[in-house]
Amino acid sequence: MRVIWCCTSKIFGTIFRKMSYMNNQKINSFRNRVLNDDVLNVLKQLPDESLDMVYGDPDYNVGINYAGKNYTTKWDEYINGYIELAKESMRVLKPTGNLFMINYPKQNAYLRVKYLDDNTYDVQDYVWTYNTNVGHSPKRFTTAHRSILHCRKTKNNNFYKNQVAVPYKNPTDKRILNNLANGSKGRMPYSWFYFNLVKNVSKDKTFHACQIPLPLVEMLIRSCTKKNDDVFILFGGSGSEIVLCENLKRNFISCEIHTDYYQMILDRLGNNGKIKDEYRLDFIQQKNKKIPTQTRDLFTIGK
Ligand SMILES: C[S@@+](CC[C@H](N)C(=O)[O-])C[C@H]1O[C@@H](n2cnc3c(N)ncnc32)[C@H](O)[C@@H]1O
Q: Which atom of ligand 1 is nearest to the CA of 261?
């Protein structure tokens, strides 16, 4: 009996090691690469339980124009696609992994109720607020927030409070002094946060239509990964989040379906993240070329 048990566990041990080796080889072939491909296509090629974090800032199905293509489809079609994306994202996460999905509240509410609540260990819905001067209506309050869904694959998800802690409000309080003495670097951030939108004049702004502020993404990445961990930035966009991974020494995988954005990402990765003038908005390009103000005004009229 003991001999059979020993042989079986040896065989299973060998199979397990071989599978881990093959998974690692597979991930290696994607590691620190951006693919000019459909994200679902790439996700489906990745092995189960191989990544530390997946982060998605997808198209929101509200008609934003990416590289000349207007993104809107039937609601059910959109939600089914979003569910498939989340399902594949959860599959590729390690048991210690975390998924974050940014979207408008309604899109994320559907994803949560129709899929995530029943298929992940835990779902949290965070709120990112920002100031805005668009979208006002005389009949309702102005939308100025987005939802960030955070899914933990298991109860043993990695989460590093001290990498994202914010200063205590009452650092002289007895209990707080005790926490600080025990190594705490501050309190856990709340489930809502304020980050400015990326303005047209921001140093991070490119010609991409919809960029997420980097301090927000940095907080998410730091919350659940360490150096050399593997992060899938599902949608490459302007490339800012990918450059951020490089700067934070996290490995990345990413996809961008539009060639213009893809080329910009490659260019940025080859130039320490720098955004060349040709990838900036027109009016910034004109400003940088120091065209006299009067002529410059002609360029900006009607934009
Ligand atoms: C909301 S934007 C991401 C912007 C990014 N967070 C940033 O800050 O630069 C979504 C991006 O996904 C790309 N995209 C849309 N559908 C895609 C797909 N199926 N596969 C890969 N990329 C896609 C769009 O071209 C767009 O650049």
A: 27
Ligand 1 centroid, distance to 70 Cα (angstroms): 12
Residue 25 to residues 21, 187, 207, Cα–Cα distance (Å): 6, 39, 36
What is the predicted pLDDT for the residue at 107? 98
Structural domain count of the chain: 1
Structure tokens, 21: 């080796």
DSSP classification of residue 262: H
CA distance 34 to 263: 10
Task: Give yes or no for residue 77 CB within 6 A of ligand 1.
Answer: no
Q: Is residue 62 part of a domain?
A: yes
Token pair for 164: 């994202």
CA distance 216 to 209: 18
CATH code for the domain of 51? 3.40.50.150
Range of the domain at 45: 34-302
> What pTM did the predictor assign?
0.91
**Ligand 1 neighbourhood includes 38 CB (under 6 angstroms):** yes
- Please indicate whether residue 260, judged by its CB atom, sits closer than 6 Å to ligand 1: no
CA dist 261 and 256 (Å) reads 7
pLDDT tens readout for residues 228-264: 999 999 999 999 999 999 999 999 999 999 999 999 9
Q: Looking at residue 294, what is its pLDDT?
A: 44
The verdict on residue 63 lying in a domain is yes
Q: Is 210 in the pocket of ligand 1 (CB under 6 A)?
A: yes
Apex 66 CA angle, 126 and 263, nearest 5: 105
- Cα distances from 101 to residues 62, 105, 121, 162, 241, in angstroms, run 16, 11, 16, 23, 14
Estimate to the nearest angstrom the gap between the alpha carbon of 18 and the chain centroid.
31
Q: Does ligand 1 lie within 6 Å of residue 48's CB atom?
A: no
